[in-house]
Structures
1.
Amino acid sequence: MSASSTAKAPAFVATTKAGRVTDFVDARVGGSGILREFGRKVFPDHWSFMFGEVALYSFVILLLSGTFLTFFFDPSMAHTNYDGSYVPLKGVEMSVAYSSSLDISFDVRGGLFMRQVHHWSALLFVASIAVHMLRVFFTGAFRKPREMNWVVGGVLLILAMAAGFTGYSLPDDLLSGNGLRIIDGVMKSIPVIGTYASFFFFGGEFPGYAVIGRLYMLHILLVPALILLMIVLHLFMVVVHKHTQYPGPGRNDGNVVGYPLGPVYAAKAGGFFFIVFGVIALMAAFFTINPIWNYGPYDPSPVSAGTQPDWYIGFVDGALRLMPGVIGDFHFEYVIFGYTLSLNVLLPALVPAGILFTVMFMYPWIESWITKDNREHHVLDRPRNAPTRTAIGVAGFVWYCVMWAAAGSDLIATHFYVSLNDVTYWLRALFFIGPIIAFIVAKRVALALQRKDREIALHGRETGRIVRLPHGEFIEVHAPLDEYKRYKLVGFESPAPLPAVPNDHGIVTRKEKQRAFLSKWFFEDRVAPATPAELEAAHGHHAHPAVEAAEESKSLSH
Amino acid sequence: MKALSQKRRHPLAAIALLLMGLLVTGGLYAVATTVNEAKASTTSYSANDTAEGEKLFEANCATCHGMGASGTQDGPSLVGVGAAAVDFQVGTGRMPMQMNGPQAYKKPAQFNDQQTHQLSAYVASLGAGPAIPEEGLLDGQGDAAVGGELFRVNCAMCHNAAAAGGALTRGKFAPALADVSEKHIYEAMVTGPQNMPVFSDANVSPEGKRDIITFLKQIESNGSPGGADLGALGPVSEGLFVWVAGLGVIIAFTIWLTSRTS
Amino acid sequence: MGNHSDGSPNHSGTVATAGQNEVEKFQDPGLPPHRLRLADTDPKAAKRAERQVALLFGTSVVGTLIFLVAYFAIDLGEGAGIATIRLQNALLGVGTAFAMLGIGTGIVHWAKALMPDHEVSEERHAIRTEDDRQAAVRIVDDIVDETGIKRRPLIRNTLLGAVALAPLPALAIFGDLGPRPDRKLAHTMWAPVDGQLKRLTRDPDGTPIRASDVTLGSAFHVIPEGLNDLHEGKLNEKAKAVVLLMRLDPASLNPSEGREDWGYNGIVAYSKICTHVGCPVALYEQQTHHLLCPCHQSTFDLTQECKVIFGPASRPLPQLPIAVDDEGYLVATSDFKEPVGPSYWERDEHERIINS
């Protein structure tokens, strides 16, 4: 607004006190414009859209509870003798960091509660990011124009894991100390620079006196700052893109259907913050998390059965467990040119995580290369309507879960009364065949669900009511769908494989052939949405409108 | 700290501890009776005990352990294992073994106190071995902090830092130690049942064992200050809980939040 | 299977074939008609919802009060036990949960039951219009042109060089994060000092161990003599020096050549630090003579000089050569003959130096 136009308009004078304050601020920051832009912005409503919010709110709770904890925590590794009120550790030699963590738990009112709130919300933070990303993947929300936001989300996942791991190590108890010991071992396995990396990280030999202080700085400053930065980027892009929506009547790539920000969506989203906080508070009230007093101070000699990382690092730990160090007479640790290379540590620590994150980050581009789909997508795919993508996602998830389960192999053994070694052997096999089985099963399930949808769209919903017709035939009554419900089942795209096409020089390149092959693999099994003609045919044939026979055999031809 | 130890010396606290023990032990044997038994059995065995024990042994144990407990292919020789080993194995129901397997499972004891006492007497008569511990070592009045340190160095790697148990190789496991009587804990340390190493008095002194028992009983009666301990199994059960219960409740709320009101 | 057949030949081909022409699709019927809620039509229902919302906010107030009472009324001072802490923790949590859930569910219920629930449709706009793109390109061109960077490659190249080099000090300044590793990992405290052999002592109290103390089937957790007297770097030394001492039937040990005198009467000592990633391999099964690492389940067989028989470790545990001194105490006759713990790049080099 230019100066001249404000001069012409009659000056606005606020009548109430609150109004005067608001007007004062607004005139200086231009809040009205922002409100005009965002106040009624539309957000689609679906339960599966809330996980990003859960993550954001967990992060806010982490900041709040974490700030409280910093006031009492002392990240020093100097030796001290415990003199707090927990009897079974009285007089035990330990680090100041561990001692102050115990003081937070036993001698600071509400300290234990805040510790438990902090740790539970950390677990929930990473879990909700993971579920959010699964939702985005399986609904195809990563497609253009949201590829970059998918990458930012992936970076946030890694940062959340980093935040969690640095925090897990801070209390300097036996559990976290053995965790650091494993990190030390993995670092040392890095070729050429490994030993230096370890000495630089720990400030000398393991465990040294420096690492807790360094992790503390990373945990309370660097990593949260990066997370905050990424959240800002993430939300900025959400605003630019507007939210995606599930397919349905009235929804298309050109609009967004939902509730306006003010008041309904803001109330729901704002209220949800308190709900997430309340749920975390309930967990912290009644369920112990990370009982550091059980583990005792870190000492390189003892170890506890069931030494595991928090869940989000579990898959790496599981991969470390699954890797055999020796197969037959072949040792995965060998000496090359007089130097030691321990592939038995290096491979499982880097390769599965590397593959998972690389494929995850690249997936939007991989899929759009195969499908040659460069259009913007704002309407989501129901997972069943993209069977191959769904199958890829399930295969990856199962692969992750196999490694995840391996991290708890000892607990699986004790709780299901099986042999620890057998659990490992089975999981080693599943590491390779699990994803393949998962892919096949998930794809068939998705196709089957699509055919069920088709069935319902054409013949209506089974009512469970069996009637006998005058000539003696028994049939089940089917209730036809209304057009809105039907559109939900038929309103999707079902792309066909794209054969290889020659380039400008009239040559079908090798790469294009590969793409065509993948495209065939992606789309050859597909179930087309029902068409009006089919519906007409399905209805027209029957003597009894709205009464359809239930059984129908269909074969899936390629 | 000071406060807690004062409280422990309070007579009512001792009763509370005893009641707690009674509650958790359950089954056929109450802690009080076994403790009394332990006191009695430290005295020498009568000839009658030994003779009765031999009869019981021949009827119930000799199939595997051989006549005269000299051992067969199915069971080791028991000469020199001592009364403590018998009292532990039979008293916790591990012997007679239900079936051959990686490890004998704890189950309701098959013999009553007197019979166990007689069996112990017989096996003790075959050769010198660790005796049933004296009552004074089982009173739980040692130093819990020292016991905790000893426990972490010598026991926690198998039994878990909170004594929740853990896995060994090929189907064997170290059991959880909650609900195990003081006497049986002591006997296990001195005899090294199954694959457990022996912690002789030269390794962990009798006072050290008393401290360990004190520590175990103290953390057991304390419970977890933070609420339910989720099995004290560490991050795995915590992760499982947050995924199943935590996210489950959150998802229930999101569904309610986004559903239409009727 | 069923009796159903609609006769249409295309119908059984629910699977469309590749290259099939675009078939007619169902038309989008548009947003479904709005359905009124109870509270929209029935003022009583609306009033009821209003009361429910107020009740939920009231619960929150109660929660806050519970928190404050639990915080101030429960004393963690003298005489407070674990049960008191547990009670306070539970009440603080319940208070917070009520306070938060009351507000949260109240607001959401208000939004769901009483605020308008008309779904609205908003147009999406192009994220970037062609107009904007062209304007932006013009601006960038102008800027680049005004800087003259294209015409003056000398400026561009020196700037690139300077910027590329400038971060180097920022990296170099971290050079003091840690000392050089040198051969620190190759040695432990077990090395005899001035010809004085180190005794094996009990962890944690540091009392020396007699050979006769180590009975068949027992396992001792061992630290070197003098470790507890260290102040600086005690844990660093302990992290390399911890040893597990066991006694087996001498007949079941099969020492390889050169190692025959590393044990004493069936008593052997092995490094407790796993050769995989360094967890303490402390689980000793006295009947199978297996050592198991609880972190990643590497299993070592004592009767085969701690060869790996299962799990991710690749190298046997290093053995500490031991003997008995004049007073009957166990001593280490030398340091480990190889670096202990997880492998590292220079490990083999260090092992060769130790044995030369």
2.
Amino acid sequence: MRALLTGLFMALLSLPLRAEDVTAFTLKNGLQVVVIEDHRAPVVTQMIWYRAGSADEKAGKSGIAHFLEHLMFKGTDKLASGEFSETVERQGGDDNAFTSWDYTAYFQRVAADRLDQMMMMEANRMTGLQLLEEEVLTERQVILEERSQRIDSDPGAVLQEQVRAALFQNHRYGIPIIGWRHEMEGLSQADALDWYKLHYAPNNATLVIAGDVTPDQVKALAEQYYGPLEPNPAIPARVRVKEPPQMAERRLTLSDSRISEQSLTRQYLVPARKSGDQKQAAALLYLAELLGGNPTTSILARDMQFGAQPKAIWTSAWYGGTEMDYGTFGVALYPAPGVELAVVEARLDALLADIAEKGVDPEAFERIKTQLRAGEIFARDNSDGLARMYGEALTIGLTLEDIKVWPQVLQEVTPADVQAAALLLDRKQSVTAMALPEENAE
Amino acid sequence: MMLRVFAALMLLALPLRAEIAIQDVTSPSGIKAWLVEDHTNPFMSLEIRFRGGTSLDDPAKRGAVNLMTGLIEEGAGDLDAQGFANARDGLAASLEFRPYGDAIGVSMRALTENRDQVVDLLNLALTQPRFDQDAVDRVRGQVLTGLAADAKDPGTIAAHRFDADAFGSHPYATSGDGTVESVNALTRDDVVAAWKAALAQDRVYVAAVGDISPEELGALIDKVLAGLPATGAPLPARAEYALKGGVTVVDYPSPQSVIQFGHQGIRRDDPDFFAAYLLNEILGGGRFGSRLMTEVREKRGLTYGVGTALVPLDHAELYLGSLSTENSKVGQVIDLLRSEWARLAKDGVTEAELADAKTYLTGSYPLRFDSNAAIANILVGMQMEDLPIDYASTRNAKIEAVTLADMARVAARILHPDDLHFVVVGQPEGLN
């Protein structure tokens, strides 16, 4: 990496893309290993990504993927309950975990010379988890409190949960990751262990090590600790259902005394990044940036937040495409006082129609392109972020090649591609949600 | 002008980034800065702090500094808001302006190849902001929307109520964002006055990390700050803490209550600060294994998370904590928090707890220094706290030096279970 950048005055466009030092290999038991070298600080991050997320759950067991994530910090055949985190902390490290629709991931960040012990413990809990009934029940209270705090106490979060439930008519992306409360209340020790045995195995995981390490070092340690683990031949294929043709747009309204100002959000069902074919996703990313990625210069901001009588206080748009099966494209509009939701919604639809018909401003397009290119340089400053990016992409079915070419795919997008992407935003495949203060409830 | 840039101190701060040291740089015009040179990636991060922040507000103009800070990037010189954003984005640069209670933070990230242009743009924003009336009204609208949301957010309600009851008429008693009334009444003249009061050379702190030499940084600092007034508004007086122990309930329709609790804390420059810091780490620091996480979450499942923190501000010191729990469990949780407070004040910590907390805090310290922006943030924070440039290399030794006897003495000194005040936002049950 350093050698490539010795000439500091190279023009931006001559900088190599995807210049981080990355090595990958697979152990005999099927564990995929990725090493990202960054020798600037004697620090290392270990991340293990399981190809098991909430969208892989069985009907009636929503929340089990996330519940197991919590329970993975309890005991194993070698570690007492809580000892995992205590050991990491005693080394001055930090550890945590997170669950999404498509994966569950665990990480520790420690001084580079402690990687040995981290690998030993992470390998141990891949197959050695032991759960006590009482601990499972107490932890179930914790995840119920988590749900109360993160979802039920926040009408905005409640509404977004409802939006996804309406957006996906058949796919489990519509079920909340944390689970529906009535199903969470019934999750048992047996449910947790069933899930664990079905999904936690070396041949269903990707190990990412980022920081002050060499591939040889990592290979030797991975062979030592993860190598002896038996693969599970019964790992289920990730067969996901498809959405039916969506024939009618859905509109939701939530009135709540805790909502302070009216707002409108819309989410569209759109394609995600696909292995070998990321062009549409790249164009959607540009579309989101141009439409509402900048609070001052985006199409929505210029049209609705400026001028003599601004229609909106705040606008934004985003694209989420790093998912296995479907992406989402979102827009949020906060109208100015006295402006009806219908007015800002009509403007949104007119602006989208305008992009589809006339295309986008070439100068604005070039600015996004430049920023995306520079973003690749800034990303190299954060090996943790790179570890996350690699782990997530590989776990949802993209390949190392897909990751490598992604910056290039982004640079090859044309304004015409963005114009075409606007046609993917079909209201029949969308949910529009209106949040209203209770006094304005219809 | 003669270039007067010194790289006087070259200290090996830590075994952090091998071969990298914190350099003390003085710009030709005499402004001090700390620099970590790192030419790995062709960009730099610059962090600037202006001491004072929203606490400089005239009480009748609460929210002026906040509104002004939001307007710095909304047009400067010949550029209107969109022209400024286009210029910044075309350079792939990042320029951020953030208001805090005791400071205004300015962050710049620039590629080496066009750094000079980014610096010019930042100087333009700081010294020639336009404060166009339409921009003032637009950002005011955004602030008001935020205030309306805050008024219905239980966590914010709890924090604001605690501050209001704790600090009387001091600026700390109210939100730096202002109130609906005060923000609605702010004029362009108020914004200009806040700008002159808050952004001045007599209160500036600078740190830089990345692809830049000390000489280049010295020149850069002078270019960024050229044209700012020499002096700004006087800093506010000390804030007197007025809260007594007890419970305040704010009715709020939710299945869960949000609780903010605390009492007075300890000054950052107090000789007992490190013992207090270790004490907090053991009681309610960020880790899973803290006493409060163990008692409230792990053993009883009463919350998703509970944390406490020492909050040494410029003009007051607090010791604060917060958590959420079901309404029916509020009485039980408050009793538990009080008893954990009392147990620690009376019995202190065990030798094993102290050893574990020391290993964690000393081991995790280097992990914070993990990107250009993170390091620049740490360095500018050290300067604001008046710490020496070799602090990073002596800090762990100060933690190691704390003894079990220190812990017992400081626990009795700073933990006052009877003084704990709880603000409960929700519909709690089980309160005495």
3.
Amino acid sequence: MNIIVCIKQVPDTNDIKWTENNTMQREGVESIINPYDLYALEEAFKIKKDKPDTKITALTMGPNQAESVLKKAIALGCDKGILLSDKKFAGADTYATAKTIASAIKNKLGNFDLILCGQFAIDGDTAQTGPEIAAQLKIPQVTFVKELDKVDGDSVYANRELDEGIETIRVEFPALICILKGYKETSRATINGIKRANESVITIYSSEDIGISPEQTGIKGSPTYVSKAFRPEHNRQCLFAEDVNTLASKIKEYIYE
Amino acid sequence: MSSILIYAEVTEDNYIHTVVFELANKAQELSQKINNAEIIALLICKTGLSENYKEAFSNSGFDKIYIVENDRYTHYSTELYSKAAIDVISEINPDIILIGATTQGRDLAPRIAATMHTGLTADCTGLDINEQGKLAATRPTFGGKLMATILSRTLPQMATVRPKVFKPADKNNTKNTQFIYKDIDISSIKRKVEFIGFVKTLNSAINELDSADIIVAGGKGMKNEAGFELVKSLAAKLGGVVAASRDAVEMGLAPQSIQVGQTGKTVTPKLYIACGISGAIQHTVGMENSDKIIAINSDKNAPIFGICDYGIVGDAFEIIPELIKNL
């Protein structure tokens, strides 16, 4: 099987920096693989364990330093890393990001059976890019998947964790599946994996390479934009308790008033 | 004529999701700022079921309900529902589309947006119309550190909103609601996603949090299971319900079903006690409308103290046991 796992590098810091356009400054900030994406990778590794001839490609979009999360993905068990990097990609919203990734998949990655994504990214929390990639590629999407069950010929069974319960579905390939975080710890890099990662060369594609015009990508290709960013204002005034006794009285007062 | 379209989600239990009436209420306010735009609902359901829902829609402020019925709409399906939604949207060309940020809505909305090449803003906590008559959608962003107001250059302008962010319509709107049936041919769609089964697992904690008068929540500062036990003890002492911040959930201290915040529940109890929660916007948008908020935190500069009524600075591991004794 051919599996593409879309991963996102997210800042591993509380220190958010901003550009003049009110988009996030990513350069110069320490990055990690989005925790949800680790579970998407895990599902790919599970399939590969069952079907050893499976090829797993990790794909991300970002500045050149995003190479490091792809190397990490290879160390964990991916066969290959592809980085979409171009100044023209900067400032993309979910629509433009999905369009860019979908173009790369269509024009550069060829045939695939599955695309796996994390359901959320901890820095944006939109949960939109996965389904938008699927829509752009006109393939089925399956969201909120807690775990993949068995691969059955050209399809896979999956359990979706929805607001009201667990839904089981079977989806035909090619498809895009968004994976939720599980409770189990994800794999650690092996010595062999780290060696492979060090020896690997990450393929880098520009907008030209993937055949997307500058108007369709990055800030120019984004239908949405941040008009302002601000800290919310509150009109509560916090009074501080000197000791626990006073706090206890206050709690009683709030409950019984 | 301008219009605002609201997706009328039908739940697995076959009722109209409460978020639909919350969006309807917000839409009344938005409508007044864009030439009294029509408020339209889109209902997609199994053949014959729409009759059962008409009562729910009455007096809720809808001008029109577009109904698409088919026996293939027994369960939600991205493929079949997005086809109906896109066909109806293409016909009525709404200025704004509002969808509940439920698991169903979060699956459907991006599919529609990408297919129609338009923008979508997720999990909004505020909606307004700006001076140019555009939808100004506000959401916490960038790890919940800041609020961002997002505009769309394209039409329709789409947004999702989590349940309980807005107040529901109060059912006294006497507007005449028109029901319009649309026949959409989906016979040629061969589904690639086959429905196998559904097991209801509604977590009782979800309902408990919705109706709780007192909530005691634990965050990263509660550090470990022993710390979270303290949160539970305090909740038990007060007859309250336990909740958690995302950090506590990420650390495995609490299940996701009791997470409060932008990607969790929105709660409005009489009293909310935040223990070891720093107060990132991602969390506070889910609890800031509580009547009274108390915070226990070791860092006196923690943002949580900026949004609470009463606080104590100190080690929660010492304060909570003593507090329980004093209550």
4.
Amino acid sequence: MTALPTRRVEEWKYSDLARALGDAGFGDGAAKAVATAPDGVEIVSLENGNRPAWVAQHYGKLPANVVSAVSLAKAQGGIAMRVRKNVAVVAPLVLNISGEGHVRLLLVLEEGASLTVSEHCDPAATRNTGFEIVLGENARLDHVRLSPASAVVQVEEIALLAAAGAQYHSHFASFGAKLSRLEIMIALEGEKAEAHLSGVSVLATGHADITTHVAHKIKDTHSTQLFKKVAGGKSRAIYQGKVSVAPGADGVDSRQTAKALLLSREAEADLKPELEILADDVKCAHGAAVGDLDADSLFYLRARGLPETEARALLIHAFLEDAFAGVASDDLREMVRGTVNNALDGIAI
Amino acid sequence: MLEIKNLHVRVGDKDILKGLNLTVGAGQVHAIMGPNGSGKSTLSYVLAGRAGYDVTDGAILYNGENLVGMPPEERAAKGVFLAMQYPVEIPGVTTMMFLKSALNALARARGQSEMDAIAVLKAVRKKAATLNVSEEMLKRALNVGFSGGEKKRLEILQMALFEPKLAILDETDSGLDIDALKLVAEGVNSLRSPERAMLVITHYQRLLDYIVPDRVHVLSNGRIIKEGGKELALELEAKGYEQIVKDAA
């Protein structure tokens, strides 16, 4: 069996997966994914060995890290989803992932197709999810993922390929686990492909790691990343983001921002944005900041009558707000906001 | 209403106010004028209760109660309002949402009933129009991208909404052109009342052409060195601070 990474592996230095899992590993259960799909989405079970050609064409083809490779080898369940050429699906596809063990997902949007996915991770069981996403030319995927607070290990790897003009807009809201990691590997392979990633981590306790790789493989591709973290108690919030620009990929525009607010002395945030630029004419910016609430703002609000805890709560909400302001669907944005508000209620501020 | 006695204030390891005495009665408007570094902003912050401004001696009596050590929100609830020189920008909080939070926090602290969103909107609209604060400004994030004039108008709008008994205006004229200055001054003048005291802190005499004070105090090196009627502001303008400080020495 492939050895799982420990913190001695650079990319996993903030998330010692082997140690968190212990001898039991991900267990022998059969984790599953259930999709409540609106009209226009085809769904195929991956348990069935007799897979249609479009599944066989894409399944297990995207680059994988070591953990994703394990899920590919061991997963017994999962689903593949497809939206055909030029079909615009308006209602969101709701994806529920639950159970213990490994599970695989494949989503294919053909040329010109569009879809919104609302992904929910059941917090009860130790799980490893491997997700492959293929976006055809000018396809658009809006992806909102919620991972509620959990006492166990939950990891997910997303590999995504975007053809020319394709757009990926995602928001990842995580609320901590014994070890929680979302790793996304994006290849912008066609001109004018775009990826816009955002996320919030609101941690009363536990660990949440968001690791991103965005590869600008060709000219005129565009990416933005905005991640905000609020860490209380003894929690640990991690962002590792690597943007790479291939030789000759001129006209690339990439922005990367990660900020964390620490609400207790024992909380920790590790923010590591990275750039690797091998092209000449590009616009890339990155920034990271860890801190406490702004003293001027706090005084301003209190001087206008807001009690200290209320003033702090308002500033914390404000800090997080712009990270999910970009969620296109009003319903999903409200869902994220509601979940964030509930999580903040559970943190001593 | 306000009686400051022998006030000594230290910021970090530096003494800024060194025995300041000042009395402002209800219904009066007093101006504090002084050169840069004289302690004007320290005075405004210490009155509002900002952390980091340590009162090492003296008292700030407000309606007979000592404000020293009282948290800023309690002072606000009791009717102290500071219009700030540099209102802060808070992305992620709309101006309207901020006004509602502040109005309701004050209402709770003052034992009044809270207002729902519609009642707040009505109250704000009524006062916003005269200060030329647009609906669009109210929808924007608090002070974010506001011009200097817009920020100051929003400060005065808050002053009108929160109904303070003691209003302190810290360099409200800074960064304003003459039209914006007039608009702000009109807003302030409309809030003059027999129950309300105002302390107008400014470097320049210009603002006092429009907000005419009952008394003028000159602050230098942490103390009031001279006081007089509104004509003192004109004298300062004519002679300059240096001469007045010399004369007082």
